[in-house]
Amino acid sequence: MTEHILFLTGKLAERQLCSILAKMQPPFTYTVHELGLKVAALMTTDMVARRLTDTFGATRIILPGRCRGDIEILTQILNIPVERGPEELKDLPMYFGQAAHKYDLSHYQVKIFAEIVDAPNVSIEEIVNRAFYYKSNGADVIDIGCLPSTDFPHMEETIQALKQAGFVVSIDSLDANDLLRGGKAGADYMLSLHESTLWIADEVAATPILIPEKHEDLASLDRAIDKLQRKNRVFIVDPILDPLHFGFTQSIVRYHQVRKKHPEIEMMLGVGNITELTHADTMGMNALLLGICSELDINNILATQVSKHACRAIKEADLARRIMFAAKQQNTLPKHIDAGLMALHESSPYPNQLEDIKDWAAQIKDPSFRIQTSEEGVHIYNRDGFHTATDPFDLFPKLHVENDGGHAFYLGVELARAQIAWQLGKRFTQDQALNWGCASQTTEPTIDLHTFKPAGSTLKKQS
Questions:
Q1: Does residue 454 register a pLDDT over 50?
Q2: Are residues 86 and 120 in the same domain?
Q3: I need a labelling partner for 42 at 20 to 30 A (CA). Which of 21, 112, 220, 317 fits?
Q4: 276, exposed or middle or buried, with CB in 10 Å at 0-12, 13-18, 19+?
Q5: In this structure, are 255 and 297 located in the same domain?
Q6: What is the pLDDT, as a whole number, of residue 455?
């Protein structure tokens, strides 16, 4: 049975909607119904419930993307599945293309080890606070980073505090004593052991992460792998990712060589050597690095958030691992799965061409300003005129709002957003903040140690 879809819209958008549907030649029949209002974005589900007296034999109803209200209640009232379409009509073909390929981003395969660097110089309370923040951004393991030749008197208490709070913990050091102490204190993982320090794995239960004895000495790594395999010991291997111009390409080759020789072992990639040590936006780096992990079946990464430009690295890696997992499961390219890693640009920044906007503007009969963008620039219009510029300052003299401070302020904010969107190639929607994806700020939580300290514990805050 062919699906019949009812599209509800407003007077101004009706002709454009009909035109887009006709060009789509969709595999369903449809009815377009103007609900008796001028602007579709002002539609509400309550209005639909009151005004829609005929569903035209529809098996599904598509509302404008900006329609407000409870979709579930409307579905119950009409006894027909109801959903919101895209916010922009020009995205309708993509919307129906995606509907056939909905991606579940609740699954992933890569574990994120989030390092708290310079831990010997950080209080227990601050370490726990940062652990909660990292966890909220996707971290699976909290990595306690030690410092060379630096005392860490509160290491054991730190690990105990994290374990009591429910975290999985790794201790990160090249000092044998640090690793031994961390393992005995209850750390779940040890970063990093090599052939000469492999004896530590016999002393504690923590899972060791193995690195070469010397930087590119894969033979020593092979020997360490063989020793632990003969002991039936669980381990993870990290061939070490080098920074750009200091061996990056060769280190990628090294990872490939290790995977080819050991197809079944667990591996780790230290992404921080690229995200931290390259002054470029980190979202693209994380996408590419997690793509490499996906191809090579590397199921663990070590991420850091030290440099200011890398302050969303864990959050970005979390989304990247989910996108790559979904793409791999569906045997598809990592495109049109989720836009959260596209902060600066968008695949379709301008939903309307200049001719479409002018056609829309010609139908406006009220004094309210509308603002839109196209490849040509920023457009603002009402019944009194249509103006285009790439600099909002060129538009202000034409708007005649000098004596209305509130209105001028509002238009200034919206035109500034529109200018930024046009300059970068982002989607602009009036009255909505620009979407920066994973780049937007997340508030760090503050946790009091006493909120999770078990009864009778002697745990003390580190001053």
A1: no
A2: no
A3: 21
A4: buried
A5: yes
A6: 32
Separation of alpha carbons 61 and 75, rounded Å: 9
Residue 286 CB coordination number (10 Å) = 28
Report pTM: 0.81
Q: What is the mean pLDDT of the chain?
A: 91
% residues pLDDT > 70 (the chain)? 94
In this predicted structure, what is the pLDDT of residue 347? Answer: 86
Residue 217 tokens read as 């000495």
Please give the angle made by the CA atoms of 326, 329 and 333, to the nearest 5 degrees: 65
Q: What is the sign, positive or negative, of the torsion defined by CA atoms of 50, 56, 59, 60?
A: negative
SS3 34: strand
What is the pLDDT at residue 386? 96
Question: Bigger pLDDT: 352 or 207?
Answer: 207
Which residues does residue 6 pair with via DSSP β-bridges, in sequence order? 31, 61
- The number of residues making up the chain comes to 463
Sign of the Cα torsion 351, 353, 356, 358 reads positive
Check: CB of residue 449 under 8 Å from CB of residue 462. Answer: no
User: Is residue 148 included in any domain, yes or no?
Assistant: yes
Same domain, 131 and 269: yes
Give the structural domain span for 419.
354-435
Phi/psi at 246 (nearest 5 deg)?
Answer: -125, 35
Could you tell me which of 413, 389, 390, 391 has the C-alpha nearest to residue 401?
Answer: 413
Query: Which are the contacts of 91, defined by CB distance < 8 A and separation ≥ 6?
Result: 348, 351
Banded pLDDT at 98 (limits 50, 70, 90):
low
**Whether residue 240 sits in one domain with residue 171:** yes
Q: Look at the block and give the residue holding tokens 């995205």.
A: 91
Q: What is the rounded CA–CA span in Å between residue 310 and residue 289?
A: 14
- Please indicate, yes or no, whether residues 161 and 61 belong to a single structural domain of this protein: no
Q: How would residue 443 be classed by pLDDT, with cut points 50, 70 and 90?
A: low
User: What is the number of domains present in the chain?
Assistant: 3
Strand bridging mode 385-389 / 377-382: antiparallel
Whether residue 443 is contained in a domain is answered as no
pLDDT at 446: 55
The encoded tokens of residue 310 equal 């890398």
Q: Say whether pLDDT at 168 is over 70.
A: yes
* Beta strands at 189-193 and 207-210: parallel, antiparallel or unpaired: parallel
Environment class of 346 (CB within 10 Å of its CB; exposed 0-12, middle 13-18, buried 19+): middle
